[in-house]
Specification:
Radius of gyration: 20 Å
Number of helices: 6
Helix content: 10-25%
């Protein structure tokens, strides 16, 4: 699931492949920009911003993309077969003399002026993996609506940028509170710890091919995707339920013994069939983008 660490890795791969090179191929397969031709222009850099990717191109242009749930960018040598999905799922192709970057299933793809990047990402809070990271501002943002459930507040990219559904569930487990606890009810010492813990998790995983929050070789995550298997800490069955985020319901995982605070009543929003624990990274402006 693309979260801040996944997007950071994607940006690094694209930057390594494209930055400083002249585009010899350009194909944007979205109606509004289908006639745009970037060939002959040099790629300046590829920068992550929360869950967004900004590919800056000579001439004051930025290709803004967002992966959301299913999107991905793949980089191939020019003699390599493309394996990211069927051709009809390709939304962008950027080619140089030796590498080709292909964007699959990109729900957001737009060509904007670089000076207008704030229109695409200006709503974001401090980036957990960015140079603008400010833990005090992130905490102030989170506590602005004290009645809001913690899980929803963590997903709101206007508060802090980079957390998705996996880290939301894992952070709440590590803090030993449920995702439905009102932010204002979070004990002061836990609230103070939260921004630093979030940054630590994402930084620890931005260089890993498989995301891990546990430090255990055989168990990558504490609760996300584990229902109804036993909690790694206390052996109580992990539970799963949907939690709204303002745009759609998202599966949320928690241990009813290890985590204190409110949770959905049995039968209300609980998931009977839950996905297996993810091993590999898969690879909104909405507040949750």
């Amino acid at each position: 699931m693309p979260e801040g660490d996944t997007v950071w890795q994607t940006a690094r791969r694209l930057h390594t492949a494209l930055a400083g090179k002249v585009l010899s191929r350009s194909d944007l397969r979205v109606p509004k920009f289908a006639t745009a031709d970037l060939t002959g222009r040099t790629v300046l850099d590829v920068t992550p911003r929360g869950k967004h990717l900004l590919t800056r191109i000579e001439g004051g242009l930025t290709l803004h993309s967002h992966l959301r749930m299913d999107g991905s960018w793949k980089v191939y040598a020019n003699d390599e077969r493309w394996r990211g999905g069927p051709a009809h799922q390709i939304r962008a192709i950027l080619g140089t003399v030796d590498r080709t970057a292909v964007g699959y299933r990109l729900p957001v793809l737009e060509l904007i002026r670089t000076v207008d990047e704030s229109r695409a990402v200006g709503h974001l809070g401090p980036d957990l993996l960015g140079p603008d990271w400010d833990p005090d501002r992130a905490l102030t943002n989170l506590l602005r609506d004290p009645a809001r459930p913690l899980g929803e507040a963590l997903l709101d990219q206007r508060n802090l940028a980079g957390i998705g559904n996996v880290y939301k569930s894992e952070l709440c487990f590590l803090l030993r509170v449920t995702p439905w606890l009102p932010v204002g009810a979070l004990p002061e010492e836990l609230a103070a710890r939260l921004p630093g813990l979030a940054k630590k998790l994402l930084e620890a995983n931005r260089d890993r091919p498989i995301r891990s929050t546990t430090g255990h070789r055989h168990h990558d995550l504490f609760v996300y995707g584990r229902a109804p298997r036993p909690c790694l800490r206390c052996r109580t069955p992990v539970r799963a339920a949907d939690q709204g985020d303002g745009s759609r319901e998202r599966p949320t995982y928690w241990c009813p013994a290890c985590q204190s605070g409110p949770a959905p009543a049995p039968g209300t929003g609980h998931r009977q069939n839950v996905p297996p624990e993810p091993r590999h990274r898969t690879s909104n402006p909405r507040p949750y983008s």
